[in-house]
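Standup notes
- DV: blocked on the single-chain target, sequence here:
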Amino acid sequence: MGGISAAQVPGVHGRRAVRSELGEAFAAGRTRLGLVSLLLLLAALGWWWTADRMAGMDLGPGTDLGTLGWFVGVWVVMMAAMMVPSVSPTVALYAQMTRQRGLLRPLLFGTGYLFVWGLAGVLAYGVYEWGRSLFGTDLRWNTGGRWLAGVVLLVAALYEFTPLKDVCLQKCRTPVGFLLGAWRDGRRGALTMGTRHAVWCVGCCWALMGALFALGVMSVTWMAFVAALITLEKMLPWRRVATWGTATVLVVLAVMVLAAPHSVPAFVVPGGGHSAHGMNAMH
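- DV (later): unblocked, structure below
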């Protein structure tokens, strides 16, 4: 009498277990929300810094990229600004799956991710400068430059329907599947998984980055435009709507750049004298 019966004990323990699980769930949710907020803040700072550094530098297609070191530095910040919003759910999910407190491993994941995009920037710089040195005046806007820009946009549109794009986009849209299939423990594992995820993202988005060069790689407006397309493709529930919509927009832009470039909003026709900074190879 006056004590707790044996039948009541499991109920007490059960309620305690439920409260413990709820507490852990709420703590994990707060950590995930805090991490996503931090990543979005870093992306916002990246946009602010990029806009400041690129002020007055947009001369349309063919804008001089400056030195390799300067370009890669700007490129990495650009990628942080453009890609972090769409990759932040994957990083947050990774942080939750590690069951480790602190931000070190998620930040290592992000570091590996940006490292691969930095390498992609080096490759893009090499191809860009090689083309300028090889073809020279043949790529002036009124000769071959306009056609090159239009073709790059059309290629980006066609790539939306290729099997490689389909496979890479699927990896980007299903972070759980990627994380389970590529899981590696420890800090080195975080770096490795970040680089692997970035490889899939490069495979998914390289043509859209090419479209950015065709529209004006030093334009914050076109950066935001391409970043929006990437984010919609990765996060919109209707996958086919996203890919078909992206392809349609790119085709329309290609036609307008070829037929009536001055009518394209925010597009700087090379040689128009819109900026006092930088150099342009397509005037």
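- Follow-up: The chain has one domain: 9-263.
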